[in-house]
Amino acid sequence: MTETQTIIDSWKVTTTTLNKAEKRLQESLTSIGNGYMGMRGMFEETYSGDKHEGIYLAGVWYPDKTRVGWWKNGYPDYFGKVINTVNFLKMQFFIDGEEVDLYVDEVSDYEQALDMYNGVLTRSFVVHKGEKRVKITVERFVSIATKELCEVQVSFENKGAPASVKVVSAIDADVSNEDANYDDKFWEVVEKEATSESCLLIGRTIANDFNIPRFTVGFKMTHSQTGFEALTPAVKAAAVAVAYEANLAEAAVATIGKRVLVVTSRDFETVTAIKTEIERLVTALAPQSYDDTKAAHERLWHQRWELADVVIGGDASAQQGIRFNIFQLFATYYGEDSRLNIGPKGFTGEKYGGATYWDTEAFAIPFYLALAAPEVTENLLAYRHQQLPQAQHNARQQGLAGALYPMVTFTGVECHNEWEITFEEIHRNGSMVYAIYNHANYTGDETYLLDKGIDVIVEVARFWADRVHYSKRNDTYMIHGVTGPNEYENNVNNNWYTNFMAQWTLNYAIETLPKLSQAKRAALNISVAELKQWGDIAAKMYLPTDETEGIFLQHDTFLDKDLTPVAELDPTALPLNQNWSWDRILRSPYIKQADVLQGIYYFPERFTRAQKQQNFDFYEPLTVHESSLSPSVHAILAAEIRYEDKAVEMYERTARLDLDNYNNDTEDGLHITSMTGSWLAIVQGFAGMRVSNDELSFKAFLPQKWDNYSFHINFRGRLLLISVDETGTKVTLISGESITIKVDEQTVALTKEA
Amino acid sequence: MTETQTIIDSWKVTTTTLNKAEKRLQESLTSIGNGYMGMRGMFEETYSGDKHEGIYLAGVWYPDKTRVGWWKNGYPDYFGKVINTVNFLKMQFFIDGEEVDLYVDEVSDYEQALDMYNGVLTRSFVVHKGEKRVKITVERFVSIATKELCEVQVSFENKGAPASVKVVSAIDADVSNEDANYDDKFWEVVEKEATSESCLLIGRTIANDFNIPRFTVGFKMTHSQTGFEALTPAVKAAAVAVAYEANLAEAAVATIGKRVLVVTSRDFETVTAIKTEIERLVTALAPQSYDDTKAAHERLWHQRWELADVVIGGDASAQQGIRFNIFQLFATYYGEDSRLNIGPKGFTGEKYGGATYWDTEAFAIPFYLALAAPEVTENLLAYRHQQLPQAQHNARQQGLAGALYPMVTFTGVECHNEWEITFEEIHRNGSMVYAIYNHANYTGDETYLLDKGIDVIVEVARFWADRVHYSKRNDTYMIHGVTGPNEYENNVNNNWYTNFMAQWTLNYAIETLPKLSQAKRAALNISVAELKQWGDIAAKMYLPTDETEGIFLQHDTFLDKDLTPVAELDPTALPLNQNWSWDRILRSPYIKQADVLQGIYYFPERFTRAQKQQNFDFYEPLTVHESSLSPSVHAILAAEIRYEDKAVEMYERTARLDLDNYNNDTEDGLHITSMTGSWLAIVQGFAGMRVSNDELSFKAFLPQKWDNYSFHINFRGRLLLISVDETGTKVTLISGESITIKVDEQTVALTKEA
């Protein structure tokens, strides 16, 4: 939505225009979800214009045969895709027999609003059919109280002469995926039945050639109606439907509620078990009205906000931005299911296919560490631990020892199909270990590290030890042929970040081993020779630097480039990925997202202020921030070196990236995993939160535009409130035991206020 | 075929085994063609086992929508493919009503032979059906006397009790392409008719989304029969067919001839014109029997051999190898049509899709310069000149000035879909200019260079001038982000070969400009500033070298690799492209084909013997020769530095690459463009032919295994015979004016013998 479309409201994303040219963007921005399922802000009823309808179920996916030009050894067989599920929202509205279709109908008083405080999407408008005028209001939510539940309520208020209104409500398995490689439709119907009481459809994902289990999903809908009469239900080839009709006198109102329950074979294996569970849920919910279920759902959202809200005084736009991001993150993942992870588009689109990227470890874990129960982060770590055998398989596919965590995956097996990413963007392995370290560092609890984390660390260390090569000429270990976090270069040699993370992982493994139990150490089976080799490699790892510039080198030949800063580029060239050929991008010095700076961000205590500043001064002017993951890291580092204006500029890009469609691609879905970035920019950036040497510290500044800001964090069993205004920074212990922290380099003892 | 399968016969490729496991390989090795059309050694009749049937028409192709994982700016929309044409060979044989199918039938006395001297493929076998025994002999050729003509003759000799034989002969448009991206069938039927006299089918390639004209092709078949009676013809959905029946007494013989004429919209635009042309051809050929047309065809093959044959004494295997290569090259291209080029698989397979690669300029032009009329080479050069606007378009697609000749093309527009090739393997542009230089150097005639060649050279120079960047730090011009001829590395910086070719092109352009007419120069519109810029770039072009090793560096960081020679690898790892992951290959030091050595090969007079030897000694031990284009260059350089054993080893790999299935991929088709390599290895390698400073010279050696060898070349209006035996080298002027050449560094005046 362009600025004129979205009304700045601190708790809502509202528009009063139906922008047909940007329907997809409006759909993305009004997505909702409950971690179990979610959907784009698609319309329930028919809309014949360009749109991108999508409803997604967490963990229900399809292995789509890899589509490449020329096959290369080591390629994954399939690209795993979150698939558009059976359309259970589907409705049709008719007024005097004519179908409502906002693409062609005359409409007035349009309003669509995502209420983030309550987790409810509403839409209302008056549709004109000849002389008739009917106001239609649609409300929907996916319950966080009952994860299998989606409710829709539609009311029709007659604003003109008497009219008949008909509603057809369906569950339709005939859905497509825009992202399908070979235009397959992914659902087949196993069972269907329709009565005027309820309709049931059991769908199953189509067969595949890769021994990936098929998913079976049951969908049941019941309806409540006021002023409507039920007509005969219909069973179609791939759908079940039921119709309702009402004759509305002038000013009369009729309402219909659609309650849908969705149960999948992820939780209940057989069709029978799925049906039994659906019946159980239907029965359990039967006593509750739409208002009841909605109230239960909203109450839980209020609780979430109580902990997670970041309050910004004096900047409604920033306030809306941070809430939108937190809302969408929680809609995607709230940590209930360790088999799940945080997909980069969540439930808001198909692009990027897979479920899990390194974004989780790099950017999401700090957020969940601070804002969710400790189990949530452990679930995210356990997800990778469970997938260790698959990560070993991935390494074997490349002919290497140890474990290579995938770039994109559902099962742990790599399913991205570009060699320059799959085979080369191996720095991701470092973030798997970093997340384990980060958890231990933040929580001060090494139980997970020593019990399970070490399994991952050792296998990743083994991978690095095999992936390096010894360069005789230089008497160093090198890593050739990688893609760093900056995906605007490929197949570079000695990417500083990758080499640094490999070295750090080897050292971290070596340091951690002595802390293990005898039994655990024996189980890991690390020989003296192996340990010595890790030490040698870490000691002789080549870390390219340039003394003249005083920087770490992004890779061996980076300084040979034409180093014209972004500011001197013709602005029409931006974003580069939409305007330049891939060739030009690759050989340019322009950086998609933090690369050297990512390493500095990860380990703030390992680098001097001068190092931070010199590297920032060198690389940031060459950075185009065309990854949604880029601005937050830069905001945090800029804040640390007190480039306050730059920090705010970067924050603004991350905070309203989707709301303002910065990268011109939000129509495909929201940048879910990078949404943590705006929270990180405030908390680690503006407020300067760090955890070093077992101590929590803050070193805050207040952006000029803001009057104040405050947020809560969980820290080692305490709940803290951090408030920053022009008088300074105040940290309050809301619950938990006393603790000593640092604020602005002063030691502060926090005790519970009376 | 494994060695036991192929009988070493200097003029034939013969097998007496029907090897069902290697049917595809047998098909590849028995391909025939006439430059206009050709086909794999597929059977006419039904064969239900694994096979790869393919008949191809030169220049008849389809733009198949690009299939990539993730789209990148600059990608071509489509991958152009030589498509399998309507199956006009199709026949079915029945004995007493049971269909002959060699995959399941018992067969004896099997023999299949490609007669290279005559250009005819024959096959004979006795098929056992219960007690019945019928000997079937099939003979086919595609005429080089009438390009539109293909003839098949089948005879049935009854070796047992009386039997009925039925033959169904068809033209069938229901064909598939193994290489289709989306499993499309590429032909639709426009018209079909069948009478007992003749059958006609007009096919058209299916529609496409890329504004590429569709091809219409007319196929007509007539039959001649001895002992057979015609049955009612049949018109099917996508085929026309006619059946013949014969009752064969014991020892009786019946014969059927199938004459097919193929006319395409490349020559005749409308369906009417195509039909008229077919009728004209049918009428013109009507008086000629099968034996007549065959004799006319064979006579022309004899003439071709008279000039082109290389005679090797004492090594039947080598003799067969060189003849096979020359035969397949001429079957693919004999220079009649400047709209055509030499596809890497010719008419022998689908792989590599496109029609034209830089192989033509690098490896085929020297062959055609010596063995064909001068117009043939000029046609090959003109092909690129015609496509200059498309090459300019390709450069624009990458955001660059000048012209970028495509990696793969039909029309001149790039249609390969991997960025590391399309966008980066730009050294190909250098070979376009080299071919023009090579033609001028060999012929001593600069007319083409100054009239048309310069258009290409100037646009390629403009491309290089824009593609380089100035590296402030080094005060040199560099070329980053390329793939050199060694495709086992991608996205390297300062590939010596690419930089060298760019520098040479700029200098060649600068040297040539003063020779142009005033008008031509004006038309090219080169400003003083532009010319100065070319001079600056050429003068400051960075050419990476290493003083310690005394070598040119393949690229900036090549020496940082683990430089273990191929000889020390576990032999089971070879070929690497079938055993190693792409990742491992890319970061390894192993070289697919000559890279630095390609540049040294191109310009033998520019490098000292020491430079040649040092670079050969360094790079060859790291080279796996997994491109069919590799061994010939190495054979030539090895011969020059008098590594005679190495030269012979390399020659043997190139000469029998397909016959011995060296790279284990001949089942996909023959390596047509690299077939020139064995000729080059003998002529430029063993015989040491060079043309330098307007002088032809030879410096030959005789491989130990050989008694002698001899060949002809055309040179500047003369025909020369070069004979080498243990007594030395003798060059004889067969026709043309006297000329002075050098043999073993001695000046020799050649005059016509009395």
Tell me about this structure.
The structure is a homodimer of 754-residue chains. The first copy, chain A, contains 20 helices and 32 strands. In chain A, helix 11 (496-512) runs antiparallel to helix 13 and helix 16 crosses helix 18. A 10-stranded antiparallel beta sheet of chain A has the order 1-2-9-10-11-12-20-16-15-14, with helices on both faces. Residues 1-5 of chain A have low confidence and may be disordered. The first copy, chain A, is α+β, with helices and mostly antiparallel strands. Chain A is 31% helix and 26% strand. Chain A has a domain at 12-65 and 78-284 and 298-308: Beta-galactosidase, Chain A, domain 5 (Distorted Sandwich), CATH 2.70.98.
Reconstruct the topology from this structure.
Two copies of one chain form a homodimer.
Chain A: E1 6-9, E2 12-15, H1 23-29, E3 32-33, E4 37-39, E5 55-65, E6 78-84, E7 91-95, E8 98-99, E9 106-115, E10 120-129, E11 132-142, E12 149-158, E13 163-172, E14 187-194, E15 198-205, E16 216-226, E17 229-230, E18 234-235, E19 239-248, E20 253-264, H2 271-285, H3 290-308, E21 310-313, H4 316-332, H5 359-371, H6 374-386, H7 388-397, H8 419-422, H9 428-443, H10 447-467, E22 469-471, E23 476-478, H11 496-512, H12 518-524, H13 528-539, E24 545-546, E25 551-552, H14 576-579, H15 582-587, H16 596-602, H17 609-619, H18 630-640, H19 644-655, H20 676-686, E26 690-692, E27 695-698, E28 708-715, E29 718-725, E30 728-735, E31 739-743, E32 746-750
Parallel strand pairs in A: 27-31
Antiparallel strand pairs in A: 1-2, 2-9, 3-4, 4-5, 5-6, 7-8, 7-13, 9-10, 10-11, 11-12, 12-20, 13-19, 14-15, 15-16, 16-20, 17-19, 18-19, 21-28, 22-23, 24-25, 26-27, 28-29, 29-30, 31-32
Helix pairs in contact in A: 5-6, 5-9, 5-20, 6-9, 6-10, 9-10, 9-11, 10-11, 11-13, 11-16, 16-18, 17-18, 18-19, 18-20, 19-20
